[in-house]
Design brief:
This protein is mostly helical. The protein is built from 4 helices and no strands.
Length: 94
C-alpha cells in the first residue's frame, strides 16, 4: 500500500490502462508473477505510486523494461546481476 493518492485500476482511464499494459509488456515474462501479493485488479505499489502521472509511469518503468531486453548483448543472468547490485547499492528492497 502506498501512502500517497493513487488511481485504482477500476477507476483508471483508457490512457492509464494502456500505459500500464505497455509497461508490463516490456518486462521479462518471469516478472508477470509478483513476488509480493497484489490484490486482483490492482497494480503493484511501486507502479500504483505513479498512476496520477501516466507519462512518468511510462518513462520510469519503460526504461527498466528496455534495459532488460533479450535483444541486448548481455545474458539474462547478467541483466539480473546488474539490477540486483543497483538495488543493493540503493538499499532498495524490490
Amino acid at each position: 500500500m502506498t501512502w500517497i493518492k493513487t488511481v485504482p485500476l477500476s477507476e483508471a482511464d483508457e490512457k492509464l490502462l494502456k500505459t500500464i499494459d505497455l509497461q508490463r509488456s516490456l518486462y521479462p515474462k518471469e516478472y508477470s508473477q509478483p513476488t509480493h501479493p497484489v490484490p486482483e485488479g490492482e497494480a503493484a505499489a511501486i507502479v500504483a505510486s505513479h498512476t496520477l502521472i501516466p507519462e512518468a509511469l511510462h518513462h520510469a518503468f519503460a526504461t527498466f523494461g528496455v534495459l532488460m531486453s533479450e535483444s541486448l548483448p548481455l545474458s539474462r543472468r547478467q541483466h539480473e546481476m546488474i539490477a540486483t547490485m543497483v538495488s543493493v547499492t540503493n538499499r532498495c528492497v524490490y
